[in-house]
Amino acid sequence: MDTNTLDRPALFVDGEWTLPEHGDGLEVLEAATGTTLGWSATASETDIDAAVGSAGRALIGWRALAPARRAEHLDRFAAALHARAKQTAALTSRENGMPIRLSVGVNGYAPGLMMKYYADLIRSVDRDDVRPSALGGRTVVRREPVGVVAAITPWNYPQSIAAMKIAPALAAGCTVVLKPAPETSLDAFVFADAAVEAGLPAGVVNVVPGGREVGAHLVRHPGVDKVAFTGSTPAGRAIGEVCGRLLRPVTLELGGKSASIVTVDADLELFAAKLLEVSLVNNGQTCHAGTRILAPRALYSQVVELVTETVRGLVIGDPLDRSTQIGPLVSAAQRDRVLGYIDMGRAAGYRVTTGGGAVAQRGAGWFVEPTVFEGVDNAARIAREEIFGPVLTITEYEDEDEAVAIANDSDYGLGGTVWTSDEERGLALADRIHSGTVGVNHYALDLAAPFGGVKASGLGRELGPEGLTPYYSAKSIYFGAL
Ligand code: NAD
């Protein structure tokens, strides 16, 4: 194992830095250069057993704390994450290629904000709800923590996606075993550093990187009470099957292929100004990105020209440079996959209006040019499958009914946007889109509102008060009439 300051040779189990069972660590590569960024400890099944055991022991004391005491811990945890925000953002951008101007918010500051949000929420949520019984007497409905949570996360927004699980889980009185994606193992240890600094009780948060085999071991572990997963739809289905057999609660945040409907009265300047953040955010490596642009016949050529010019003008570069709008993809495999889809689109006869290949002058980093296909039939594979890179398709529609039909003709249902000068019309169209979230002239997650998908985009919701509910189990305690 090389040694450099970014190396993380130990797992975080039971509040201790613990050497893994096997010494051979996991190499984390830098997306912009393809060279070694650092080495991470990687967990074996035995290490996972130890982490789950520690979370189980910690559960006894953690769940017994009054919510106000847990909230104080979360506040300190938030402060410790906040203090590290800038370094965390830079480290994550080096791992996954996310432009730093985005990473500072979503990897740097968002985790602390989530801890704070759920700390404040549990201060205002009573543990018990006392209800008069319909049959006389009364019932105490008690919110109990569901138990030990296995949090399994992907590499694209590793910090915020982990925090979307850790924050509500800890707030509800659960303890957590975090298994991050191998590509972004290094930044996951920031949660361990912050837990130590905040003085969280040992075992409340455990960090054990590893591949999908140890992830699978964690999912089926008898000491786990709930699984919170974000990742691809195939992995989500595999995890859902195991949890179904075990009757184990599971939340699944999966893939997407969202539509951006440009209506005839859209403010096209606004649409162009927001194209990067709505459709190509994080180099297109975003589950809710609006990658299928639907344009009305009357504006079709104008939309094609506008999207093409906007995408052509994006600044491709080093993710750590604040002017960069498009950075490299996370890995060589991801770059090859995205280039494969571009070839597939061309082979199917669709016209590339800009981009269409790797960025040769960027050396060994995994850069792909932001690419636009026009005239795409919604039945084409590039319009149906999640590419997870900077590739957009433009499809023409006749009227709004057809736009809605195309938007909904997808296996997925995670995001979507409507572009219109009339908010009422936007709301009416949003209502017809079969999806967990929709934006009108805008798309951004809201910490206080539920996020999640329908159909192949998953099960359950994270964020907002709805994001706390899956970490509780409701117990009814009946009292008869006196
Ligand atoms: P992935 O599914 O390959 O891996 C995600 C995580 O699950 C990793 O930690 C991986 O090691 C683990 N894993 C994989 N198979 C497993 C199994 N059978 N059992 C247990 N653990 C397993 O996904 P990825 O390539 O890391 O991330 C990209 C995918 O994530 C995209 O499809 C994207 O749309 C999706 N995603 C969804 C959301 C959302 O909120 N809906 C957010 C971000 C990413």
TrEMBL record:
This is Aldehyde dehydrogenase. InterPro entries: Ald_DH/histidinol_DH, Ald_DH_C, Ald_DH_CS_GLU, Ald_DH_N, Aldehyde_DH_dom. GO terms for molecular function: oxidoreductase activity, acting on the aldehyde or oxo group of donors, NAD or NADP as acceptor. Pfam families: Aldedh (PF00171). Keywords: Oxidoreductase. The keyword Oxidoreductase applies. The active site is at E253. It comes from the Bacteria. Residues 18-477 form the Aldehyde dehydrogenase domain. CDD domains: ALDH_AldA-Rv0768. Belongs to the aldehyde dehydrogenase family. PANTHER family: ALDEHYDE DEHYDROGENASE, ALDEHYDE DEHYDROGENASE-RELATED.
